[in-house]
Every structure is written in structure tokens, then in C-alpha cells.
Amino acid sequence: MVADNAISIAEAHFSENAWFRAIYVGESPAGFVMLHTGYDYDEGFDCHGVFLWRMMVAGPFQSKGVGRKAIDLIVADLKARGINELYTSYGQGAAGPEPFYKGLGFLPTGDFYGEGEHREIGVVLRW
Ligand SMILES: CC(C)(COP(=O)(O)OP(=O)(O)OC[C@H]1O[C@@H](n2cnc3c(N)ncnc32)[C@H](O)[C@@H]1OP(=O)(O)O)[C@@H](O)C(=O)NCCC(=O)NCCS
Predict the structure, then answer these.
(1) pLDDT digit string (tens) for 31-52?
(2) pLDDT at position 6, please?
(3) Average per-residue pLDDT in the chain?
(4) DSSP string, 70-121
(5) Three-state DSSP class for 47?
(6) What SUPFAM superfamilies is this protein classified in (predicted)?
(7) Whose CA is nearest to atom 37 of ligand 1?
(8) Tens digits of per-residue pLDDT, 78-122?
(9) 101 lines ligand 1 (CB under 6 A)
(10) Residue 35 burial by CB count (10 A; 0-12/13-18/19+): exposed, middle or buried?
């Protein structure tokens, strides 16, 4: 399940480690990304690297390369800051984003987060 963007933005204001941006295609708002940029177990981030916390592209803009471009821009920004990896996690259901992340080169870390229907596989992209 993907959280509502308003919930994500509210959460971000309670986190010193949140970085978030809207995705625009031209003048049109098309999506949202949020990173967690530091280790903080209190927020449930048992991860020492930068973590892609939320990522969504709005329906009409999906499957047009917008998500890939957003990840490319995030990677370029992290690279410029001397960071060489990006973590994330996702649910592995049939309609889930696994093909998207696999296609970008994210690989399993061996970690899993959550339980039952909320269980997510941890993955990392390194460059
Ligand atoms: C998953 C999501 C972020 C992908 O963004 P997008 O803009 O639709 O993806 P892109 O068009 O950039 O796709 C990049 C590649 O991934 C593939 N891909 C993307 N979503 C896919 C899917 N659901 N199934 C299969 N392939 C998919 C594309 O075919 C494309 O492959 P190609 O470059 O070889 O042609 C977006 O569809 C989305 O927000 N979905 C709903 C919310 C969600 O699941 N968020 C992730 C939470 S962890």
C-alpha cells in the first residue's frame, strides 16, 4: 500500500532526515518522492544509507519514463554528494513495483521489513 502524499509530507515534518520533492512534467504535477537521509531507529529506519522512503507517479503519467527519470535525477544528486548507493523496499505482490525497481538495477539486500501482508523486500542500487 502506498501512503497518501499528504501523510508523507506530514511525516516528513516530524523527521530531521526527510527530503522530499514534487515531480513535475512541464507545468503539471506528476508525482512525489521522499528520501530518508540518515540512520534513525526511532523512525523505523534501521538503515545506514539513504533510503527511498516514498515514490509515486500519478496514473496519467505512469509508464512514460517519469519514474526512471526521477530516480536518475536522485542518483545524480547523491553522486554529486559523494554517496554511491540508494536503498528502498517494496511489497512483492503481482501488481507491485518490483519490475520497475529490478529494471533500474536494484538488487536484494537480504533484509525484509514488516510482517504479513505488509512485508517488504529490501533492495539497493549501487553505482
Ligand atoms: C512504480 C512507479 C513509481 C513507476 O514509475 P513510472 O513512471 O510508471 O515508471 P517508468 O515509466 O519510468 O518505467 C521505467 C521502467 O520500469 C518498467 N515498469 C514500471 N512500472 C512497471 C510495472 N508496474 N510493471 C512492469 N514494468 C514496470 C517500465 O516498463 C520501464 O521499463 P523500460 O525502461 O525497460 O521500458 C509508478 O508506476 C507508481 O507510482 N506506481 C504506483 C505507486 C507505487 O507502486 N509506488 C512504489 C511504492 S514502493
Answers:
(1) 999 999 877 666 667 777 999 9
(2) 84
(3) 91
(4) HHHHHHHHHHHTT--EEEEEE---TTSSHHHHHHHT-EEEEEEES-GGG-EE
(5) coil
(6) Acyl-CoA N-acyltransferases (Nat)
(7) 62
(8) 999 999 999 999 999 888 999 999 999 999 999 998 888 889 999
(9) no
(10) buried
* SS3 (DSSP) at 30: strand
* Total residue length of the chain: 127
User: How many structural domains is the chain composed of?
Assistant: 1
CATH of the domain at 96: 3.40.630.30
Hey, is 42 helix, strand or coil? helix
Nearest in space to 88 (alpha carbons), one of 28, 29, 33: 33
- Domain range for residue 14? 5-126
- Cell numbers at residue 37, please? 537521509
Index of the ligand 1 atom closest to the CA of residue 61: 7
Q: Is the CB of 57 under 6 A from ligand 1?
A: yes
Q: Is 62 in the pocket of ligand 1 (CB under 6 A)?
A: yes
Cell of 44: 523505523
